[in-house]
């Protein structure tokens, strides 16, 4: 077992990551509210615009209970932003998928999020790539090979 690092730089990095996350979520909630969505609804809608998926997969990706996702998808469906459709690979499974209005709403929501874009714009391509790769490494994901 490794000993947790408590050196000043590590502690500062942890605090900065926490601050970035808190600011991102605060702005995300505000942007969602402008579209009459909760933050959770906006996150589900954004995830579904990447690819339609069963609600249990949405729950796994967002690390929450499937019953919560069912309620969120119900409300998004009522607003005409999401629909349930059969999975073409397994007709017993229902996929949650964005409607055209859902895709448009998710796009407008993403476009209204300035917090991450503005500070990242100050970084060079190489710095943004390095930051991405370091974050992936922290998460245990493979970063793409550098040519």
Which secondary structure elements does this structure contain, and how are they paired or packed?
Blueprint (H helix, E strand, L loop, with lengths): L7 H27 L4 H12 L4 H8 L3 H13 L3 E6 L2 E9 L1 H12 L5 H5 L3 H14 L9
Antiparallel strand pairs: 1-2
Helix pairs in contact: 2-4, 2-5, 3-4
Instruction: Estimate the mean pLDDT confidence.
Output: 89
Low-confidence stretches: none
**CATH fold-level label:** Arc Repressor Mutant, subunit A
Give the count of helical stretches.
7
Keywords: DNA-binding, Transcription, Transcription regulation
InterPro entries: HTH_MarR-typ (IPR000835), MarR/SlyA-like (IPR039422), Tscrpt_reg_MarR-type_CS (IPR023187), WH-like_DNA-bd_sf (IPR036388), WH_DNA-bd_sf (IPR036390)
Protein name: MarR family winged helix-turn-helix transcriptional regulator
Organism: Streptomyces maoxianensis
